[in-house]
Amino acid sequence: MSHHDPDLLFEREVLTDIRRLDEAWIHPATFMFLADHSGVSPEWVMERMACLPAECREQHFILLTSGSTGKPKLVVGTRQRAESLARTLHELQASEPVDETVCLLPLTYCYAFVNQWLWSRQFNRRLVVTEGLAQPGRLKEALATSRNAMICLVGAQVPLLTRYFQEDVFPGVIRVHFAGGRYPQERLDEVRRLFPNAEIFNNYGCAEAMPRLTLRRAEDAPLASHIGWPLPGVEMRADETDRLLFRSAYGAVAMIDDVGFTAIGPETWVPTGDLGRRLENGQWELLGRANEVFKRYGEKISLPQILTLVRANWHGLADCYRESDPQGEAGYVLVLSPAPSADQVRDILRKLSQTLPRTHWPLRVEGVANLPMLANGKIDRQQLAGRPDSTILWRQRI
Amino acid sequence: MKNRDKLKQLLMDIFLLSETEFRFDLKREEIPTWDSMGTVAMAVGINETFNYHFTPAEAMSVNGVEDIIRILESKGIPFHD
Hints:
The complex is a heterodimer.
Chain A: E1 7-10, H1 11-16, H2 19-26, E2 31-34, H3 42-49, E3 60-65, E4 73-78, H4 79-92, E5 100-103, H5 110-122, E6 126-129, H6 136-144, E7 149-153, H7 157-164, E8 173-178, H8 188-194, E9 199-205, E10 212-217, E11 226-230, E12 234-238, E13 243-248, E14 254-257, E15 260-263, E16 270-278, E17 284-289, E18 293-296, E19 299-302, H9 303-311, E20 317-324, E21 330-337, H10 342-355, E22 364-367, E23 391-395
Parallel strand pairs in A: 1-2, 2-3, 5-6, 5-7, 7-8, 8-9, 21-22
Antiparallel strand pairs in A: 3-4, 4-14, 9-10, 10-11, 11-17, 12-13, 13-16, 14-15, 16-17, 18-19, 20-21, 22-23
Helix pairs in contact in A: 4-5
Chain B: H1 3-15, H2 36-50, H3 56-61, H4 65-74
């Protein structure tokens, strides 16, 4: 059997003609689908793709992820697995009544790629590609004229949607999916105002899962950290240090990074990068990113739990970055956008003070006009620290 | 800024008090955020603002805003300005 060289397909080619993606999907050669501004060069990608063994050079596809580590890597999936996942999601997300899907995220994002592009291809539903919030006028038109539509969002987009579409309602949207970041539990009222006829789902996964692991409806749990039940074909477990691991019938079969090619066998437990625990009802709860839970003065600090408290009392955007205090103890800085008033900062800190000792309060509270964002809608944590436009609004004195 | 105003701003910031909540006769037990680490933060803030370092005994003896003023005045930092 002859083996093809893998193809490199750029987002701009697909946006010009969506059929390019269909052609790549039905062509035997493995292809890589790459964002135009991915942060890596085509040469870097081609060097990594040269590591592909012969058995991965057909009927596979490759996406780029930088995850939360900031280190780029390629995830290699099989088309059969991805199609199987799209079928599973169709059933579990009750997508049969959905006639079309409106894309607000780049299609190179695995979530949009499988849940929207591949799904629309498999079930012969209309795909409406937009530039998302980069072109809010066009997005508004697409949402306003949609009929029985499904959309996929990341939580960080909700305040932006609310800001852009203050007076608008989009009754044609009947499914709203969240994934790729923290679920916006505190903002569901805003989501329901924008999309009054939509069923809302919390989807959880990671790039290595290609990309889904669990699912729940909004009404199935009261907390953002409750991510629902594993999909059929997905096994999950937490190890002795609470690291959340998975094995999936839909997951990536390999990864390629600067170290080289790493196969993911059927027996391999893959770390999600999160900490988690199984609840009594079989749902899973996230306890934080493995690098977002740390000890300060001997006591555990969970940044996700802190951000949950902050977001319950702050309707702008909020995130944290790690920093050590002058004594060398691990701590964190809270960044809020837009910059809050002194009264708002005090209210947020008072809420923290009701459940957390002073040592667990942030080392500083900083305000910025806008948080740095990645193309996929997530906050760019690599760029949070030392922003020239940040203002120190409060600081610890211990 | 007068020393009274400096102290007021400092304590409002450390103990998360609003303008209307702050009084110069506030007692420690009236301020929920004034725990042992709050005392440490207060001592650090006093040092930064008034360049006086509370001894541990002085810091632990403080039971309200008036005690802070009394200690600082005894060190030559005026509060009747």
